[in-house]
Specification:
CATH superfamily: P-loop containing nucleotide triphosphate hydrolases
Bound molecules: thymidine-5'-diphosphate
CATH architecture: 3-Layer(aba) Sandwich
Oligomer: single chain
Distance between the termini: 14 Å
Strand content: 5-15%
Structural class: alpha/beta
Helix content: 55-70%
C-alpha cells in the first residue's frame, strides 16, 4: 500500500478550489492512487450539521469567538471521522479549505489571534496539518465575479461581505503562506482550469514517482 497524503486547497471565493479538487482526484486516480475529495466547513455528518449553523443567518449571528469554536468543532469531527481514517488507509485526501481558512477569515473578520486559532486546532484536531497546501491566487474582483456567476448575489454569510473584507482575507492568506514556505505553494488561478491542475500535478510529481 502506498502512503496516504493530505492536500488542502485555499484561497478566496471563486478561485476554483472545488473544480481543482475534483480534477486532482481524477488525475490521481488515473495514476493509480485512491483519492477522496472533501470540504470545510463540513466533510463529515456532524461537521455538515455545524456547517448549516455557520452558513445561514445574518452576518452578525455569531461572535468571532463562537464562530472560531464552531469551525474548530466541525474540523475536529471531520479530522477524526474522515481525514485521519482515509490517510491511514493509504488514500490521498484533497480538502477544499482547511485550518488556514479559519486563520485568514476569522483572523481578519474577528481579529482572532493566529496563535489562539492554532491552539484550538491543536486541542480539537491534534494540530493535524496538510502535507501540502495550494493557495489559489486570483485578484479579488475576478473571484467575486466568478462566485456571483456561480451562486448569485450574497449567497451566504461570508460571501455577502464587501470587497475590502475579501482583499483583507487575500492579504492574510499571503502572510500565512509566506511564513510556511515548506507547506505552501502559490498557484496562479487566473489561468484556464486545466493549466492550474497541471501546475499542481507538476508540484506533486515528487510524491507520485
Ligand atoms: P463555501 O460555499 O464552502 O465556499 P467557497 O466556494 O467560498 O470555498 O463557503 C465557505 C465559507 O466559509 C467561505 O466564505 C469561507 C468561510 N470559512 C471561514 O470563514 N472559516 C473557515 O474555517 C472555513 C473552512 C470557511
Amino acid at each position: 500500500m502506498t502512503n496516504g497524503r493530505f492536500l488542502s486547497l485555499e484561497g478566496g471565493e471563486g478561485a476554483g478550489k472545488s473544480t481543482q479538487a475534483r480534477a486532482l482526484a481524477a488525475a490521481l486516480e488515473a495514476r493509480g492512487r485512491s483519492a477522496i475529495v472533501t470540504r470545510e466547513p463540513g466533510g463529515s455528518e456532524g461537521a455538515e450539521a455545524i456547517r448549516a449553523l455557520l452558513m445561514q443567518g445574518d452576518a452578525a449571528r455569531w461572535s468571532a469567538a463562537t464562530e472560531a469554536l464552531l469551525f474548530a468543532a466541525a474540523r475536529a469531527d471531520h479530522v477524526e471521522k474522515v481525514i485521519r481514517p482515509a490517510i491511514a488507509a493509504g488514500q490521498w485526501v484533497i480538502c477544499d479549505r482547511y485550518v488556514d481558512s479559519t486563520r485568514a477569515y476569522q483572523g481578519v473578520a474577528g481579529g482572532m489571534d493566529d496563535a489562539a486559532i492554532l491552539s484550538l486546532h491543536d486541542f480539537g484536531s491534534g494540530g493535524l496539518l496538510p502535507d501540502r497546501t495550494y493557495l489559489l491566487e486570483l485578484p479579488v474582483a475576478a473571484g467575486a465575479a466568478r462566485a456571483t456567476e456561480r451562486d448569485g448575489v450574497a449567497a451566504d454569510r461570508f460571501a455577502a461581505r464587501d470587497v475590502a473584507f475579501h482583499a483583507a482575507v487575500a492579504g492574510a492568506f499571503d502572510r500565512i503562506a509566506a511564513r510556511e514556505p515548506a507547506r505552501f505553494r502559490r498557484i496562479d488561478a487566473a489561468r484556464p482550469a486545466e493549466d492550474v491542475t497541471r501546475a499542481i500535478l507538476a508540484d506533486l510529481e515528487e510524491w507520485l514517482a
